[in-house]
Each structure stands twice: as C-alpha cells, then as structure tokens.
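RECORD TYPE: inverse folding
INPUT: structure tokens
STRUCTURE:
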C-alpha cells in the first residue's frame, strides 16, 4: 500500500459517509462515499518532502484531507468540507475527531453565500450546456445542485448546517428520475437563488469565521502529536 495511504489507516481522526446516503437521497445503486480527516505526525513536517494535503483510498470512493488543509477549506466555507463536519453517518471518530466536530460552528460564516451560490451556478451552467448538446442534463447532478442550494439557504437563515433533504426529499428524487420539466427546475433554481440572497441580508452568521479559534486548536493538535507520539488519540 502506498505510504500516503498509511496516513489514512494510522492517523485518521474522523471518517464519515457523505453524498446521497447522508442526504437521505440514496437508492439501491448509490455508492458509499467516504470522506475523512487525518493528522500527519508533526515530525513529518520537518522533512524536505512534506506530508500530502490529501489522500485517495485505500477504500473505493474514499478521500481524506490532512487536518490543516481541511481547516483551510472549511474556513473558506467549502460546501463539501462543511458537509463532512455535519454528516450524521460517522464511521470513525477519535478524541481529536470529537474536538473537530465540536469546533464546527467556528467555521461557519456568511462566506457560505458566495461558495454555495458559486458552486450551484457552475453546476447549473454545466447542466444547461449538456442539455443543449445532448438533450438532457445529468439529472443526478441537477438534484444535488438543488439540494446544495436548499442546504445553503437553510444555513444562512438559521445559522446551523443541515444536509438532510428533509421535506424536499420526494421532489428532489423526482428531479433525479427526470420527472420534473426543465422549466420547473429552472424556476426552482431561480427561487432558491433569490432565497439565498434574502437570507444573507438577515443571517445570524458572523461576517467571518473564527480563524483564531481554529488556528489555536490546530496548533494544539501539532503539539499533542509531537509530545504524545500519536495523532489519533
């Protein structure tokens, strides 16, 4: 097994299932998408060759980030990263993993408006282009775009992250099956875009994440990795 994958096997602090299974939108054919966080030993950073910022595998559909890179992306309100912190399907969680999950509110800010809206806009443009070329979009991708917009709007409105499709499940699954007319999909997307904008104006979220709190935690992780000789405690 490649050395990089040993970091995942030996130093993972958090591993969760994301995607359709975490969103309440899975079917019998849905993959098990695993995402995780590992802590490279502090002494590995003393070498000329630094530890990798991310690792694929060793399981199929598994992807993990080194904790510093994970925190950087979370502070930028990366939707995929925030969903890792809020997935209800936790498969592995060490004491440091518990601390990271407790730290989740520190990553949340109004930056989510930009990142969620930008991601959704890019996915919608791809869907429209594919529809123009081939007659229809990838409906699964369209479903996930709409679900992401719902999650982003809810986050901005409430100040808390929710990734489950909840009451929108059946409508979203109908989109996935291609049963919703494209004009209706476009209208729903426009409605959600307007909802995101409205939510920003009155959001209880702070303008910026609590970078200092996150950085202090990360420094403590590096210290503990060095003194304990382990990064998975």
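DESIGNED SEQUENCE:
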């Amino acid at each position: 097994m490649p050395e990089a994958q040993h970091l995942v096997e030996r130093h993972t602090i958090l591993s969760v299932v994301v995607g359709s299974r975490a969103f309440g939108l899975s079917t019998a054919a849905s993959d098990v998408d695993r995402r995780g966080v590992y802590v490279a030993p502090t002494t590995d950073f003393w070498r000329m060759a630094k530890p990798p910022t991310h690792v694929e595998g060793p399981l199929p559909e598994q992807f993990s980030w080194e904790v510093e890179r994970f925190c950087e992306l979370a502070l930028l309100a990366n939707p995929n990263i925030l969903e890792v912190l809020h997935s209800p399907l936790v498969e592995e969680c060490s004491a440091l993993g518990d601390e990271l999950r407790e730290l989740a509110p520190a990553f949340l800010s109004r930056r989510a408006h930009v990142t969620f809206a930008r991601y959704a806009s890019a996915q919608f443009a791809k869907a429209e282009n594919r529809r123009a070329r081939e007659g229809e979009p990838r409906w699964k991708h369209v479903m996930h775009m709409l679900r992401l917009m719902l999650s982003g709007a809810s986050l901005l409105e409430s100040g808390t992250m929710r990734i489950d499709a909840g009451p929108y499940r059946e409508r979203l699954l109908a989109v996935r099956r291609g049963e919703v007319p494209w004009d209706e999909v476009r209208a729903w997307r426009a409605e959600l875009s307007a909802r995101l904008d409205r939510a920003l104006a009155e959001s209880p979220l702070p303008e910026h994440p609590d970078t200092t709190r996150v950085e202090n935690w990360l420094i403590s992780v590096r210290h503990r990795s060095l003194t304990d000789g382990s990064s998975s405690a």
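NOTES: Residues 176 and 217 are 40 Å apart (CA to CA).
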